[in-house]
Design brief:
By secondary structure, this protein is an all-alpha fold. The chain is 87% helix and 0% strand. Helix 1 crosses helix 6, helix 2 runs antiparallel to helix 3 and helix 3 runs antiparallel to helix 4. The mean pLDDT is 91.
């Protein structure tokens, strides 16, 4: 049982390490957050939510595989290599293909003028929620650009040593 629990720990640590180091992963996570946050305005069915969740998971998993491949390539050699470039470019292309498919599905699911009007009407009638949404967008940009690892580094550098 301890071995299984440790494997979960290592998996979550891998996710955390990737979130701390990979801006593209942070972008995908942020996009997923807003898609799921605003999706109730579009009255999606259970099957549509299932597709959204599977696509979100697939894009994030592809980004994690891409990160792993890039890290292994960097470990193997620091020199320029045709095969390393090929491996990195192809793994990035896999993420791109999946992301484009996810965007296409999102356009099909969310291309609804009445739902957009209802969403804008809701936020116009609730300015506090609109302000919170805008504030969250500011934090989202900071999260994508800097990431939690860099924020943590800045905090620890600014702390004064005890004693």
């Amino acid at each position: 049982m301890k071995k299984q629990l440790l494997s979960f720990f290592y998996a979550f640590r891998g996710i955390w390490d990737a979130v701390c180091t990979e801006a593209h992963l942070r972008f995908h996570l942020t996009a997923a957050f807003y898609v799921l946050l605003l999706s109730p305005f579009f009255e999606l069915g259970a099957a549509q939510y299932g597709v959204l969740i599977l696509l979100i998971a697939a894009v994030i998993a592809a980004e994690l595989f891409n990160t792993a491949i890039e890290n292994v390539c960097d470990l193997v050699t620091k020199e320029r290599s045709y095969y390393v470039r090929l491996a990195k470019d192809i793994s990035a292309a896999a993420v791109l293909v999946l992301s484009i498919a996810a965007i296409a599905v999102a356009v099909v699911f969310f291309w609804n003028a009445a739902a957009f009007a209802a969403m804008f009407g809701f936020f116009a009638a609730n300015p506090l929620l609109a302000a919170l949404l805008l504030l969250s967008a500011v934090f989202a940009v900071i999260f994508v650009v800097t990431g939690p690892g860099k924020i943590r580094e800045r905090i620890s550098k600014n702390r004064k040593p005890k004693g």
